[in-house]
């Protein structure tokens, strides 16, 4: 999640920059593999892959400013994708905000050789109604979908629709913070909260498990004053693992999650990849491992 500067631009923290670096590393590996598949002949003598695309469901933050140095601009996810070589065959950029869409539209002038399709609207509706129907398995197309919501805007049914294509890999930044803020410590959540979490996570059986277990274990799950100085939350690792397990019900190959932390070391999001290809999850885990080793060296 980012805050807004005086000129309407996003201002992002260090963790967001690290997330974008991880995205760029994977996009390079993905595009290398897909480009090769477009030229590799199968037994029929023709390449099996016709085209591959980049889809950004929250694309509006084109050039945010760095929180630590607001004079410095950061290349957002649309720029990271457009600068990836080999180039994708096309790019779909989605955002609900007219202001952000206006900034994305300008990218056509900066990248005239790229096929850019910009859609304003709710990403769940645009993905399910306009984009997914174009990516059937028979189409011999593939897509990489970046789901980086500002909170809990991605519906589980949208993730299911993307999985059912068998043509889409998703790189999802799951809002751990968004979930934990909805859950009270001392009582079960209201039905409206349960319904909201079900819409995002596809299941709420885990909620009943939390509130039925002994109080001393609940304290461990929800954290204590030392481990969570800003707010009482469910242990982030557990919640991130829960979401990736849910993804495994839709995708055969899911990377382990990497936790994205803010400057106070609180977990905000869990980043992971879900794919129908084992190589994709292996490459992602390797990228995440390198990232965490470098983070450990920097401490």
Describe this structure in words.
- This protein has 299 residues and is an alpha/beta fold.
- It has one domain: Vaccinia Virus protein VP39 (Rossmann fold), CATH 3.40.50.150.
- Helix content is 43%, strand content 18%.
- The protein contains twelve helices and eleven strands.
- It has helices at 14-39, 77-83, 98-105, 107-110, 123-131, 156-165, 176-180, 191-201, 205-212, 215-222, 236-247, 278-298, and strands at 3-4, 10-12, 51-56, 65-66, 90-95, 116-120, 141-147, 168-174, 253-254, 258-261, 267-275.
- Helix 1 (14-39) packs antiparallel against helix 12 (278-298) and helix 5 packs parallel to helix 6 (156-165).
Key structural traits:
12 helices; three-stranded mixed beta sheet; Rossmann fold; about 300 residues; single chain; 11 strands; alpha/beta; eight-stranded mixed beta sheet
Give a brief description.
By secondary structure, the protein is of the alpha/beta class. The protein contains twelve helices and eleven strands.
- The CATH homologous superfamily is named Vaccinia Virus protein VP39
The portion of residues forming beta strands comes to 15-25%
Encode the helix/strand succession as letters.
Answer: EEHEEHEHHEHEHEHHHHHEEEH
The total number of structural domains is 1
Structural class: alpha/beta
Give the overall shape. Answer: globular
Name the average pLDDT: 86
Distance between the termini: 24 Å
Biggest beta sheet attributes: 8 strands, mixed
What fold name stands as the CATH topology?
Answer: Rossmann fold
CATH class: Alpha Beta
Low-confidence stretches: 213-220, 224-233
Share of helix among residues?
40-55%
| DSSP summary, beta strand count | 11
Radius of gyration: 20 Å
Number of helices, where a helix is a run of at least 4 consecutive DSSP H or I residues = 12
In CATH terms, what is the architecture? Answer: 3-Layer(aba) Sandwich
